[in-house]
Amino acid sequence: MDDRERFLALMHYQDFDRMPVVHWDVWSETQERWVAEGMPEDADVWEYLGAVPRWTFVGGGILDPFPPFEEEVYEETESYRIYLGPDGVIQKEWKDRTGIPQFIDFALKTAGDWPAFRERFLPNPDRIPRDLDSEITEAEQGSAPIAITLASMMGWIRNWMGVENMAYLMHDDPDVYASMVDTLADLACWSIDQVLLRMKTGPALGVGWEDICFRSGPLINPKFFERYVAAGYEKMGQKLGAHGIDLMAIDCDGLIEPLLGPWLDAGVNLHYPVEIGVWNTDPIALRKKFGRELRMVGGFNKMTLEQGPAAIDAEIERRLPLVQDGGYIIMPDHHITPGVPLESYQYYLGRLHELSQEGLL
Fold this sequence. Notes:
- The chain is 41% helix and 15% strand.
- It folds into 3 domains: 1-53 and 296-361, no CATH class; 56-67 and 112-143 and 146-203 and 205-246, no CATH class; 70-106, no CATH class.
- Strand 11, helix 11 (283-290) and strand 12 form a beta-alpha-beta unit.
- The longest helix is centred in the middle third of the chain and has 23 residues, at 174-196.
- The protein has 13 helices and 13 strands.
């Protein structure tokens, strides 16, 4: 059984040989620490760690703004630069540390800006990246499950407008917000067709990104979601289904539980990284509440990796009932933080390999 077959069997509650030991990614500062602790600088990280990627993406560039806004740098120092990005956002980006950019100004601020902005998100053969065929070939020749990139229905809009502008738009002009969702979903459906026409191996799933939830819950009210956002997911899910793909995943940090029901109703049936956070998400409780239609990847509190073997063992033990129920792959709930020694992360991966060999994963 290869990694793709294993992933599909796991997510469909079928028999599989063993749980994949998955590594996602690290902060750049973590990478520097691990190199200082003995990891070769030019190492293939997955090979060195004895782990596999959760999946590999195809088709992402097709959904970028087209034509992109022309980059313009307004200020640059040794530690940051302020510039207009391809999405029309003026942002302050740090050069000397990992962090989220500071958004300063936006091309899309109000409902009145949407008609012109919308022109950059329409299907157009010229938006297909020149390297798409080589990207597809590389994905098909690899062993990881293949994920086709979907449009964001909330997170991109939040980034393009800023939180305050988006909040006013949802209140004052919800139909314009619905138009944004519809436009992005249509573009994603067109993209799916363009990518699959070029593929020999069908993707295992469609994957989108949101990051629309924080420590106290989502920025969007679930009722607003159901009325103005869900239709976009439904449209993308129907297009995936027409190509025989029945898994639609969303990457969203934060307290996602208030949106899980609406997401499931709209066809989103796989969530990651199921961040534990200070709000103490319990993946097992989520499975009990929402049933086996809710698949998950993640749900291992990454902060325990900074606390040593005993904490790591306890966190793994807490997740075993969900592992054994199926539809779940254990993985740290985001990129590995700089406080994690290489030895500790290798211990975590080693324990997963041991449990897998013992038939407990």
